[in-house]
Amino acid sequence: MKFTDNDSYSLPVVLAVGLHVAVLVGGAIIAGLTQSAPEPPKRPPIVNATIIDVSDTVIGQREAEERRAADAAVKAQQEAKRKAQEEAKRQAEKAALEKQKREAEVTRQKQEQARQKAEAERKAAIEKQKAAEEKARQQRIAKEKQAAEEKARQERIAKEKKAAEEKARQEAERKRQQELERQKAAELERKRRVEEQARQEAERRKRAEEAVQKAVAEEEARRREVEAGQMVQSISGLINQRITNAWIRPPSARNGMKTLLRINFLPNGEVADVQVLKGSGNGTFDKYAVDAVYKVGRIEELAELESYIFERNFRQVDLLFNPQDLRN
Asked: Which domains can be identified in the chain, with CATH numbers?
């Protein structure tokens, strides 16, 4: 037998009622049996009553367990119902959210379609405008090209005409220039012959003059060379004389002593430096000779010489100092 939740809940009640009925029936039977027996002498009845707690009996414990089971079943049923309600609510909310999403997606798609349509219309309008502008531009270019071609044609005609005129002018100018060149060449040839004759005559006179000048120059050079030699000898003797005059004879000087000095002069005649190239063997004699050169200090006549004579003969002078009036 199967029991529903309500049947499980009422089973303890039925059992309890049945138990009470059984007790009452048992009591009645016992009472009947007592009445059919010969009555003993009547005594006051003594009633020993015991209160029975149904819950302490096996039946009571079973009923309590069944009630607890029933309560647990009711609670489980309520919990399942609550969960079912929550699941239904969640599913409903989920369905509502899905519906909302679908509606939002539909709205978005419609908006996107509208945007795409508007964008397509905008692009179409732009393309249409561009096409119109391109057509106008092509027409303008065609007109400009036609005008340019016509202008170029007119310019070409004018240029060809001008070129023909220029060619004729140049041809006339060429012929005129040829005639001028011919006349100029003839004149130049005449002048060349005259100039060549004059050049040859001038060259002849120049050679004659150069020969005379060369002879004069050679004579002058010989004369100046002689004079320069005489001047060099004269100034060399002058230098030797002035150094000898400025020389102080040391007590140790003897005949035959001589020292070779190198004297460096400046262009103004001043003594720049004196060196002993070869000594006499007597240091005092050599020192006095050097002192004599420094004592002279300057030969003014050197400043009057031409530079080439000075540089060649007196920039550096090697003087053999050899006084002759020494003691034996």
From this structure: 247-321 (3.30.1150.10)
